[in-house]
Design a protein that fits this description.
single chain; alpha+beta; six-stranded antiparallel beta sheet; four-stranded antiparallel beta sheet; 16 helices; 14 strands; globular
Length: 380
């Protein structure tokens, strides 16, 4: 679990602007959501009508870890999306507990193992996106080094293959992540901190596996570079020989996304695009529409997909839809454990709803599902 983001004093509270889609009125309603970490209570104010909407009451399901921009939360059966900070105190408090991480081109094949380390560290993964930087984008990101003799080599390295950008949140996240990375030179890291990320996955000072922000100002700037509009980086989806894979919210929350990703890569599949999404009910219903009136669990499937962040991937291979579906296994993990115990759902699923993975069922739907995430929902 992530440590609390501050002192549990009686007066401390976090404020957010949250939106709820009222399907009956077909409008989006906006609220000021206040969260009090001392007793895990919340209250809400209707911003349009300027009145109290929900009296202060306990909410055991919420924690500081679930409250960040673009997160989707459930409050008394209402699905809310946090769209902004409600005051400067909350913004300053949370932004100083956030940082950016990058998995560099030489370590993307090991991203599952790196995500495992993040889950074990207690840092919360709030953003995740695979990108392929152009030379001009890399030059902008590393502008502070443009007079250094290694600048051109750095640009060549960072544009040689896709990278993975990470948003990380937690107490003292900048220093915690940099400590996990180890010394900048991977050769030095192997001597001084052999269990660090750069020691295990990097080669030398130039090819050192991962990046972490140095200061809070750097973290804010670098986070905005990758994740804020209009500078949001383009995704890497190729839309050929592909199928769709979604790691469901319960699996992400339980910290097994890294293990799932490692299993996919180790089994010879290419992850050619990857991004974290928080789906609202309308998006989940639209994506799963093919199951409506077909399977009895449709409503529960929609609900599961909206309970928190999921990770969508474009998976590429020859005959990808069929081969990957076989690799994922039967939709019911209990059946999978009996018949195909080495499949992803057998290993990571709980039941037919919380079965860890969504994958495309029909080959003719594969491209459509990939396009839904990486053309329609993705901002880049």
């Amino acid at each position: 679990m992530m440590a609390p983001l501050g002192d549990d004093s009686a007066d401390e509270r976090y404020a957010f602007t949250a939106e709820w889609y009222d399907s009956h009125a077909a409008i989006v309603r906006r609220y000021l959501l206040l969260y009090y970490p001392r007793d895990k209570s919340i209250e809400m104010f209707d911003l349009k009508n300027r009145r109290l909407f929900l009296k202060r009451s306990k909410s055991e399901t919420l924690s500081p870890a679930s409250l960040y921009i673009n997160s989707v939360i459930n409050v008394h059966s209402r699905q809310l999306k946090i769209v902004d900070y409600g005051d400067k105190y909350t913004q300053n408090k949370l932004e100083t507990n956030s940082t950016l991480g990058l998995i560099k081109p030489d370590a993307t094949a090991k991203m599952g193992q790196i995500l495992d380390r993040i889950a074990d560290s207690g840092l919360l993964l709030t953003k995740l996106k695979m990108c392929h930087l152009s030379r001009s984008e890399a030059a902008e990101f590393y502008a502070e080094h443009n007079s250094k003799p290694f600048f051109n080599e750095l640009l060549h390295y960072m544009t040689s293959a896709p990278i993975v950008a990470l948003g990380l949140m937690g107490h003292d996240s900048i220093n915690k992540w940099r400590d996990m990375l180890g010394p900048t030179d991977s050769t030095v890291a192997r001597k001084e901190k052999p269990t660090s990320i750069r020691a295990e996955f990097g080669t030398d000072k130039g090819h050192n596996a991962a990046h972490g922000s140095l200061t809070n100002d750097d973290a804010i700037r670098e986070f905005e570079f990758f994740f804020s509009q209009p500078s949001n980086r383009k995704n890497t989806a190729q839309f050929t020989n592909c199928t769709c894979c979604v790691i469901k919210p319960h699996a992400v929350a339980n910290g097994v996304a890294g293990k799932i990703i490692s299993s996919i890569i180790d089994s010879g599949f290419e992850i050619s695009a990857l991004e974290m999404f928080s789906l609202d009910r309308a998006n989940a219903e639209e994506f799963l529409e093919v199951y409506k009136d077909v399977v009895a669990e449709y409503a529960d499937m929609v609900q599961q997909l909206t309970t928190g962040p999921c990770i969508a991937m474009e998976i590429r291979a020859q005959d990808a839809p069929v081969k990957f579906r076989e690799f994922v296994g039967p939709s019911d993990p209990e059946i999978a454990r009996h018949l195909r115990p080495r499949t992803l759902r057998a290993l990571f699923g709980k039941d037919k709803i919380q079965n860890a993975i969504h994958c495309t069922d029909l080959p003719e739907d594969a491209l459509l599902e990939v396009e839904y995430f990486f053309k329609i929902l993705s901002r880049g």
